[in-house]
Specification:
This protein is of the alpha+beta class. The protein contains 6 helices and 5 strands. The strands form 2 sheets. Strands 3-5-4 form a 3-stranded antiparallel sheet. The chain has a two-stranded antiparallel ribbon with strand order 1-2. Helix 2 packs antiparallel against helix 5. It is elongated.
């Protein structure tokens, strides 16, 4: 991903002009500044259904299979009203991004959030929350 250059870029929101005049992707920009690639996490969180899943895992309602520190996949199906294959697809993407972990117990699959992964994403995005310093006036 790093090192690609763009002569033209159709989406100016996802593109920044680097110091050398070469366009770089916003995700590459974040990677360069933070020293880590958080694009899989950002892509996983970009889907509204996955955001609802993450929020439910953060604050689950007491469900039929609820455990103190994890949530059963059947409770997630009930929450979203999606089919089991769709839930499995979303959970796979979140798991591959490292945002959640899953554990099979008997017939049931239980999921929990990985707080360290979320902390890494927050740390990588923190430089963007600080307003840039005002330019200094030139001395005459």
């Amino acid at each position: 991903m790093i090192g690609r250059s763009y002569k033209t870029h159709a989406d100016p929101v996802r593109c920044r002009r680097g110091i050398s005049g070469v366009h770089i992707d916003t995700f590459e920009f974040i990677y360069i500044l933070a020293g880590m690639d958080i694009s899989p996490q950002l892509k996983a969180l970009a889907d509204p259904a996955r955001l609802r899943i993450v929020e439910f895992l953060r604050q689950p309602d007491a469900g039929c299979c609820a455990q103190p520190d994890r949530v059963c996949a059947c409770d997630i199906e009930t929450l979203l009203g999606l089919s089991q294959p769709s839930i499995s697809h979303h959970m796979k993407i979140l798991t591959q991004a490292g945002l959640i972990s899953g554990e099979k117990q008997g017939r049931w699959m239980y999921y929990r959030l990985e707080p360290v992964a979320f902390a890494e994403v927050v740390a990588a995005l923190a430089p963007f929350s600080i307003p840039p310093a005002a330019p200094r006036a030139r001395a005459a």
